[in-house]
Amino acid sequence: MTRIDINEKILSKNDMAADRLRKRFKETGTAVINIASAPGSGKTTLLEKILPQLKTRYRLAVIEGDLRTENDANRLRALGVNAVQIQTGDACHLEAVQIEKLLDDLQTDNLDLLIIENIGNLVCPASYDLGEDAMFVMLSVAEGDDKPAKYPTIFHNAGYFILNKTDLAPYTDFDIQKCLNNALSVNSKLKLFTLSARTGEGINKLIEAIEGIIKNKKEGGVLK
Ligand code: MG
Ligand code: ZN
Fold first, then answer.
1. Is the pLDDT of residue 182 over 70?
2. Which of 31, 118, 124, 173 could cysteine-pair with 217, CB 3.0–4.6 Å?
3. pTM of the model
4. CATH code, 30
């Protein structure tokens, strides 16, 4: 019982911070996307592919989460993207208070879009609201096609499912249709994107969806 109580306390503190973020992002019309996947699914590579196009049309910034190193923020800065790195040390997820601390540095009040690349982990990022408008969950075909069934919470909480590395599918036993069906059986409202960040196949559809999220936020709609 005690353990559950402690957990609830931590979550409610995070939820309060997330609510403060949501209020501020609503006032400034800043769309926020939280991306979660296991390590190595290709989150940063996907951002490298889509951000050069998006940054010509929108004011945007990225928060990168990793246990250590500035590597991912540096990859995005090399493309002229405003990126900041959070190094969590040992923590396996990002929390709303960590995002709050960066708002002034990133001048988020002037942004159309803030993307948060969460720590590579399909478990606790599902339970930590970061004030986002849209949660993206991502897998690659180099993983197991039954992951949506194994990690249902994050698929349940996400609005968007990105299946990456489709160019590698012929070299694996990954069953794309089975995986998509698996994901839909957890959450029938998931919007599905199959793409290859490496070859660029399928990324335009994702860019259009992100533009829709930005437009919706400007018009004051609630997505989630
Ligand atoms: Mg990364
Ligand atoms: Zn965690």
1. yes
2. 31
3. 0.94
4. 3.40.50.300
